[in-house]
Amino acid sequence: MTGVPAHLTALPGTVWQVWRQGLLRTAGFPAGGLTQLSAPDLALVADAHLDGRADRGALDRALAGALARGSATVHAIATDPRFREAVTWQARSVLRALDGVAAAGPTPRRDRKHRERERIIARYWQRYCAKAETIGFFGPVCWAGVDADGPASNTRPGHGLLRRRRVYLEHWALAAYADHVMRDRRVRRYLPPALQPHLALAPGRRLLDPIRPPAELSAGEADLLARCDGRHTAEWIAAAMAADPGSATRTEEEVYTLLDQLARRGVLRWTLDVPVRLDAEDVLRDRLAAIGDPALRDAALAGLDRLCRARDAVAAAAGDPDALLAALAALDAEFTAVTGQEPGRSAGQTYAGRGLCWEDTVRDLDVEIGGPVLTAIAAPLDVVLRAARWVTAAVAASYLDALTELYQDLAAEQGSPQVPLGQLWYLAQGLFYGTATRPAEAVAADLTKRWAVLFGLDAASPGGGGDRVVRVSTSGLGPTVEELFPADRPGWSAGRIHSPDLQICAESAEAVGRGEFTAVLGEMHVAWATNACGVFVGAHPDPAALTAALREDLGPDRMLPLLPLVWPRYTTRLAFALEDLRDPQLGFAAAPGADPDRLVPISALLVSEQDGRLEVTAPDGRAWPLLEVFDRLLAEVAVDVFKLAGADAHTPRLVLDDMVVARETWRTTIADCRLAWAVGDAERYLAARAWARKLGLPDQVFVKIGTETKPMFADLTSPLYIASLASALRSARLESGEQVSVVITEMLPDASQAWVPDADGHRYISELRLQIRDPELPATRVEDL
């Protein structure tokens, strides 16, 4: 394709362009592990009993046999060193359950405590076998080549599961050590103080804050703050001010006292300021090495070295669960000895980075995805991508209208066409977050209606009129798609990038190469370059090339928000890791990691109407369309909006050509399934089978309970998985009531359709994440929206 940048290849027969490097996320345990606890023969007997074709004695005998086989299987799982290593990384407290099951042997007395231990083990086992989560060795990732001119697929597993593994200290642990070093106040004189990222100085000795009236500064405060640029150390500033006859402060000690006061008031950041980045440890080490006092410097570096040596011992324990447990305990002890703090945080929270360290692994696998695979998915994916483009345009239009209304109100209130961006930004938060009605909700509802029209799921036949599968051919569909999704360009710059997750159903890698597969669309990350997060970038051999490619796609001078530590899911693993060091940082709250050469405080920015569009201007004359400054918030909204299926009690599997774009789904409540009340193995099993028959559920599903963050796998033939599901439902009922939502989704692919191989012939659940660019430039002018 003429003019297509080198990092892109064509999506055959469409206008879209695909990054030549995609991500393959995989489970760390073979998919076959999911069926080890299945009991299809028991399900047949239970269904017959429900129909009156088998007596209770037959059911009890079949159940006893299945429970005995399940206990023996769980014992084998609990004593598997790799499983124990995975659990040691994730939840050391669960090791007690593994030890108890191991000690009880393969034919245990299944008392209440043992049954609970079996449920816990099953819960972790399903996660490691069924989910392609990028976490540790039990969720390795690899980058895959993508080429429209290449063969269908080429998959070459290495000798082992992993090609590389690396252990990082968590950001919070590094920041805690930095705070420990800062307790010696002598260290601060060697650090560069800076205004908090969201604050700015203004003429007339005023300090601008986005949510407070301007503060009047004394002459000494104004002089000092003007010198706190994040480049010069406090020692340098104090000496310069003491030597300046025009300064209001006469001694260095007066300068240090004033610095301390301003830091305590939250005006200054005067810390080691560890950024949320993959190289945070290196940044901290460089800053400690810059401490001017040799004794202080050596002591600070020695403490960091102690933590790093303990971390390295954790890395060296890979493959040995007992050694790993000891190494993690030693790291905990060393952290407490060095910092005086507890070695954990945010207990029970998902994505919180609770421990002191995390492991990043790269799968020992080479994969190329070629033209035949891309051709097979191109036509249906084109429809999905046109819907994604429409979403970005609709989100941009609705939010621009809402932001314009806020701007006009502020302009009228202040009697000026120039409105501080900080005021608009904070008033606008209710448009993006919270419980009030948001513009995004109307876009989401509109998308669902348009998608229903595309598949003929109109109001007369909600949920497909009882159909299990609704199939639409893309042949001749073009005019309908253009009518339903008429946007001809994305709504803002980041709207050019979409990241679909595709799961390929095939019996083997060779079958994929022959074109014998079905693609299933998982999440569609609209307006989000998901391949740019730290855990993926850290697995790539050339992150600089990724950064350059993203800059070519999204353009220069992007305003990148400097996120505060309280931002949801903001950890080193998930943080944006492809920052171009030429792009400005938007400081809108107190946050670490500000680059003084790039930082643009929100308090220094003004919004005004220029040539028919709302524009944000900086004191140096640089300008950005308003929507570009809200890029991150708009992307979060767009990702949440893109849901193709409605909220009916049942929605069928939706298929475009041969691509599944929405799995079959059922929506109900805890009250409807009755599993949360069933007591005893037999009653619980019968309740689950009756529930499955009532709704028409397949045997293997994923269940998302409204109180939980993630769905769980459930095999509705397995008494152990049913017990685990019942336990989760019961806990949710006791916590939040019986009307808690329960969403059930068919498992697709299932264990027999996993295609990613290892050298031993095992196959693994996987997810291929592509990154696709819209060739059209974004609409950033009011009239274009």
From TrEMBL:
It comes from the Bacteria. Residues 80-618 form the Lantibiotic dehydratase N-terminal domain. This is Lantibiotic dehydratase. It comes from Phytohabitans flavus.
